[in-house]
Design a protein that fits this description.
2 copies of one chain form a homodimer.
Chain A (H helix, E strand, L loop, with lengths): L1 E4 L4 H13 L4 E4 L10 H4 L9 E3 L5 E3 L1 H11 L10 H15 L8 H9 L4 H22 L15 H15 L8 H10 L3 H6 L9
Helix pairs in contact in A: 1-3, 1-7, 4-6, 4-7, 6-7, 7-8
């Protein structure tokens, strides 16, 4: 398989973790977002949103949107599972993942921060905006797993929730958020950091890392 | 079941359509977002994000995040299905839905527009921001279904994609977007508007409509 990504993209990072957990060898095709490479016509032809990641399957299938890609990976390569079997537990895991993937990450990604700068918003206010989005999302997620024993977000194995959490915590730190306010989330991150699948997916281990 | 929502919330609107398609009777509990009712402690106790919708099941289960709720409804009440059976087709439907639910709607919702106003951004620029987010998302979605015969987004029955599209087109019009640029999406909307499940879920048919 081929994954179109960018070392710093939290959405691509989620898919890298999933591919590593599933043990699927992947060619990584970086697109430098800050140089606008995701807007090249050849890339827009496979991903009209001009966002990363895009996964190309061995049979030529083209998949976009990180959570849709991960659900597909989980359906076609079920071991190890990234969602629980029980419908209500699945809904809890998905809701946690979407609190980050819908309401947090897209509000603080490069596309939105660039638009803020175009409106004349100063750099300190842009960073504060990104920090705000991260705090809002992580605070809610801390509540969502407050009564979960762990050590991962939901149980003793990583799930879609952890795949979204670990990259988001990286973003939060980058924008200056004091993540010590989220001890339960940090407990899950600590468990994840003991796994090679998570470590190998980290931004600083990617070939395009700067 | 009980659905905590708001007549104008596109995310609650998606779930209303799903509940109607599944034929599930539901009590609707409105929370006036512009008056901040979603931030009342009693509501935050069940939805720490302070967003709508939240679904309370008959057994007391509490579900948040519209797409997680709809996936749960589809798993527990599979008829009629809201996702195809084939994994790749499921991924295509989910990717379309997430292009709207992750990258479009959260960038133009009340929370973000309020934050823009707090930064001193003028009302015309706030509306232009919301229109931009809608144009970006809908343009990509038009491409994603360009080769789908329809009449719905993916096939001859409504799917999760249509549940996200119809509310988003309503938002786009509200922000002054010329939706005639998306003929394939309008074809799907026209098909949806022939179904009572979609019509009854519309904002202007809700008890809290203004």
């Amino acid at each position: 398989m081929k994954l179109h990504g960018y070392f710093r993209s939290a959405a691509a990072y989620r898919v890298r973790i999933a591919l590593n957990l599933k043990g699927l060898p992947t060619d990584h095709l970086p697109h430098h977002l800050r140089k606008g490479e995701q807007c090249a016509p050849a890339y827009l032809a496979i991903n009209p949103q001009g966002l990363v990641p895009t996964l190309e399957g061995d049979d030529g299938a083209v998949l976009t949107q990180s959570l849709a890609i991960i659900e597909w990976l989980d359906e076609t390569h079920p071991d190890p599972p990234l969602l629980p079997k029980d419908p209500l537990r699945r809904a809890k895991v998905r809701a946690f993942a979407m609190a980050l993937a819908c309401d947090t990450h897209p509000v603080q990604n490069l596309r939105v921060l660039t638009r803020l700068r175009q409106l004349g918003v100063g750099e300190d206010k842009v960073t504060e905006w990104a920090a705000w989005a991260n705090r809002e999302g992580l605070s809610a997620c801390e509540e969502l797993v407050a009564h979960e024993a762990g050590p991962f977000c939901f149980g003793d194995k990583p799930s879609l929730a952890d795949l979204c959490l670990v990259p988001q915590l990286g973003n939060a730190r980058r924008f200056g958020v004091d993540v010590s306010a989220y001890p339960r989330l940090l407990k899950a991150e600590t468990a994840a950091r003991e796994m090679k699948a998570f470590l190998d997916a980290a931004p600083d281990r990617q070939p395009d890392a700067e």
